[in-house]
Specification:
Elements: E1 2-8, H1 14-24, E2 32-38, E3 41-47, E4 61-62, E5 68-76, H2 79-86, H3 97-108, E6 118-126, E7 131-136, E8 145-149, E9 152-156, H4 159-164, H5 173-182, E10 197-198, E11 203-208, E12 221-222, H6 226-231, H7 238-255, E13 263-266, H8 271-283, E14 290-296, H9 305-312, E15 319-323, H10 329-340, H11 347-361, E16 366-368, H12 373-377, H13 406-409, H14 424-434, H15 437-451, E17 455-457, H16 463-470, H17 474-477, H18 485-495, H19 497-500, H20 511-516, H21 520-531, H22 538-549, H23 557-568
Parallel strand pairs: 13-14, 13-16, 14-15, 16-17
Antiparallel strand pairs: 1-3, 1-9, 2-3, 4-5, 5-6, 6-7, 7-11, 8-9, 8-10, 11-12
Helix pairs in contact: 2-3, 7-8, 7-16, 8-18, 11-15, 21-22, 21-23
Length: 569
């Protein structure tokens, strides 16, 4: 888990620029900061050492033949098995997964990607063909941003990295308008900033260097065809599915124990987190310690501490309880906005950051988390109640588009998502996996974890688990209004009915109450600043804010949008 940067071009000051880029994202990898250059290209790397802690595993890494150079962010969990296949063809010098990835590309080319089980974004420079290959993993766990500016290609792991290289910071009007009008966060190639793009999940591009480069030369290609794989997956009987899925669950979690540094896990009282705790307890080697982290806000209406404490009583793992105090919120908003670069989730994201801060204090560099089950097993209420919502559990619109003046709201263009499947349920799940829920959560979580130089691993996003669950019939996912039916049925022997059959609870904090009461002075000031922004109707904003303070508090998503806009201005 690291940060990568690169400049493809021949400006004389590119070496100086690459150091500026590395410096601004040094939180992603404080263990080493190294560059490599060769005529028309400069590559850089911020290293967070997780596997093979030696300096020989630093990057940029050059192949034994000298032809290829790689910068890589992520982890290849099955690197040990791949290395066994490759050692007859490649003379390995390190114990790192980076070198295995490089050797796999040299041996198999792009088809090597299908063999990888992991999270990754990387770039490989082929010095003979003068070609750069840039790749992003199946679900987009690890970021890859790029821009073409003044006849050069720039890329990095964070948007601020490209700003540091001199790319102008200009708002992408359509993305911002859609955020306020529809509550969306951009399509897979877009960001909130003009001319800064991202490789979509499961895609790559190749770029041969020439003297006259231009935007049209970026041709994104899909290497992971999720719909095709689902259509080729045969639905199983209940008995067969339980056996196969449970075996894959165990393997997915065990693969993510591989690290040369201490492990931790983020936990809540929900089904997914409880399943993770149970799997860790069953399969973590006895000599490998792990510590658990959870947050609370000292509010019984929201806190899940009783469930978490009850679960962990059956394990030897210490639990670190981190309090989110409302007095911390203003400073957290300011700090985390800088690390996020784009609008992000509300107070739960702020609370989540405190877990990684605590883990870092304890010397823990790898955290396991339970992201991904809801999208794979249809866990949200709108999967079965015919709602078109993008947010779990709301009774009112999460957005208030009337705060935009007409000339700005006209920039909005409602997103149209692919519908590659025959059923509405699978198309909703597909939307959440590749356009809405997962891309958003993964971005928030990547920035929050890397802010504290900590690697986040999501075993339930192992592609084998997602594909197997997604491909099953609707009655395996939802029965009698009960979501994630098969998963609940599978784990209730270990977890008991209280946890296994509990309804979905969104990870919550007292955000709505704090905004209207304890934090009202801070929000009054921030909302005044939002009202003064170009394109904002001040009268509408103040009327909606008064309405909120008077008790219309079914949701506070739109209030949070306003604060995001102010902090990212």
């Amino acid at each position: 888990m690291c940060g990568i940067v690169g400049i493809l071009g021949n400006k004389l000051n590119n070496r100086i620029t690459i150091y500026k880029m590395l410096e601004v994202q040094k939180h992603r990898g404080p263990d080493a900061m190294t560059i490599w250059d060769d005529n028309c290209i400069v590559l850089g790397h911020n290293r967070l050492s997780i596997i093979d802690l030696s300096e020989t595993a630093n990057q940029p890494m050059i192949s034994t033949c000298g032809r290829y150079t790689i910068v890589f962010n992520g982890e290849i969990y099955n690197y040990t098995e791949l290395k066994e296949q490759l050692k007859a063809f490649y003379n390995f010098r390190t114990q790192s997964d980076t070198e295995v990835l490089l050797a796999a590309y040299i041996q198999w080319g792009i088809p090597a990607l299908d063999k990888l089980n992991g999270m990754f974004s990387f770039a490989i420079w082929d010095n003979l063909d003068r070609k750069l290959v840039a790749v992003r993993d199946r679900f987009g766990v690890k970021p890859f941003y790029y821009a073409i500016y003044e006849n050069q290609l720039y890329f990095g792991s964070e948007i601020k990295t490209l700003f540091a290289a001199g790319i102008p910071k200009v708002q992408h009007k359509k993305v911002w308008a859609n955020y306020f009008v529809y509550g969306t966060y951009g399509m897979p190639t877009e960001t909130f900033w003009e001319n800064i793009n991202q490789i979509p999940a499961g895609h790559f591009f190749e770029w041969r260097y020439t003297e006259n480069q231009n935007q049209d030369r970026i041709k994104l290609k899909k290497w992971y065809d999720f719909p095709k794989r689902i259509k080729n997956t045969v639905p199983l009987s209940l008995a067969e599915l339980k056996i196969e899925y449970e075996a894959l669950l165990k393997d997915a979690v065990q693969l993510r124990f591989r690290a040369d540094v201490p492990l931790g896990m983020n936990v809540s009282g929900g089904l997914d987190s409880s399943t993770l705790i149970n799997l860790v307890h069953q399969h973590l080697p006895s000599q490998q310690p792990i510590e658990a982290f959870t947050f609370y806000s000292d509010n019984e209406k929201y806190d899940e501490l009783p469930w978490v404490e009850a679960l962990l009583q059956t394990t030897p793992y210490p639990l670190h309880k981190v309090l989110l105090d409302y007095k911390q919120i203003p400073q957290l908003i300011e700090t985390i906005s800088w690390f996020q670069d784009e609008p992000f989730g509300g107070f739960p994201t702020l609370a989540y950051s405190l877990l990684f801060a605590e883990a870092k204090k304890k010397g823990i560099k790898v955290i396991l988390d339970g992201q991904g089950m809801d999208e794979a097993w249809a866990g949200y209420d709108y999967y079965h109640n015919q709602s078109d919502s993008l947010i779990q559990g709301l009774n009112s619109s999460p957005v208030r588009p009337e705060v935009l003046v007409e000339r700005y709201s006209d920039w909005a263009q409602k997103e149209v998502y692919d519908r590659p499947f025959e059923t509405d349920l699978q198309n909703l799940q597909y939307r959440d996996l590749f356009y809405t829920k997962i891309p958003r959560a993964l971005r928030f979580n990547d920035r929050i974890s890397m802010m504290h130089s900590t690697e986040l691993r999501e075993p339930f996003l192992d592609y084998r688990l997602v594909e197997l669950a997604f491909a099953q019939s609707e009655n395996m996912k939802i029965q009698n209004g009960q979501t994630k039916w098969l998963l609940r049925d599978l784990v209730k022997k270990q977890l008991g009915d209280t946890i296994a059959l509990a309804p979905k609870r969104a990870l919550q904090t007292p955000q709505r109450e704090w905004i209207a009461k304890e934090l009202a002075p801070y929000f009054i000031k921030s909302i005044a600043l939002f009202s003064a922004l170009e394109g904002i109707d001040e009268k509408q904003v103040q009327a909606i804010w008064k309405e909120y303070c008077d008790g219309n508090q079914d949701n506070s998503f739109y209030i949070w949008q306003w604060i995001n806009a102010v902090e990212l201005e």
